[in-house]
Design a protein that fits this description.
With 331 residues, the chain is of the alpha/beta class. It folds into two domains: 118 residues, NAD(P)-binding Rossmann-like Domain (Rossmann fold); 185 residues, 3-Layer(aba) Sandwich (Rossmann fold). Helix 5 crosses helix 8. The longest helix is centred in the middle third of the chain and has 20 residues.
Length: 331
Amino acid sequence: MTKRTKLLLVMKHRFALWNAPEWVGKRLHGDFPSVEVIQRLTYEGIETELAQAEVAVTWSLRPEQFRLAAKLRWIHSTAAAVHQLMFPELVASDVMVTNAREVHGPVVAEHAIALLFALAKKLPQAIRFQTLRQWSQDQLWERPPRPRELRDSTLALIGMGSIGREVARSASLLGMRVLAVREHPELGAGGAHAVFGPAQLDHVLGQADYVVLAAPVTATTRALINGERLRRMKPDAYLVNVGRGPLVDEAALVEALTAKRIGAAALDVFEHEPLAAESPLWNMDNVLITPHTAAVTEKLWERHYALIAENLRRYLAGGPLLGLVDKSKGY
């Protein structure tokens, strides 16, 4: 009797879109008859299935759950960030981890560009005046920083993964000068005009009119943008974070924004989510908040399915997987 590969599809999140629709498991079952697909809408009681699973599609797994998964060979995360999976037992194992960075990258990059335009054109302030039914032409012009153009400005892009490469490409087409900072500058500029290593981050920040964060969370990138780095930025520079909340020291950012040491910030991600109602960021007129929606798109699960299906074909055929995570680096 031919051995059947067992695939466990399980995820549970308060935000409905992050949970796999039931059609995903049904379609996998139809497209891969040699695979036993088990879909669960909650983590409760998955121990039995996990013990038999060879493949797991999930974005979260605790160490004690992983210890039960003796047959596990591959985990696919439907998130781009996988730091929550990088506990010592998994990192030291032979289990492959892939992520959905190529699913999310282009969509998040679009959002980043939208935030750049919103800050440059002072759209958050215009919306606030709109709610007051106030014609605000004078105020939008006179209150610094003034409306500006993206063309011929300098963008510091921190991180050159799937998001960063798309941001670099789009920003370059808009006429921006893109300076990229990446862990391994020897890998190339990736569409930027120049590329620098982490040791040159302070130098790049000092040149930037806009700073976009698109780096993964690692031991070296937590609180990458701290009080000292914020002081390196121009007083009218804008900060955009579509990477991960822990990249920024939020207390230091609040202080810098309050003191007007930087022009404004647009934030899609936060150190703790949902952002607490008492956070001072909510009421700041130089802050634009989107509630971790950069990756939200009506095509999300079709995009996920295409990647999962392609990688499952490769896995069954013994081929190389797309989106393979370097567990030693955490991304």
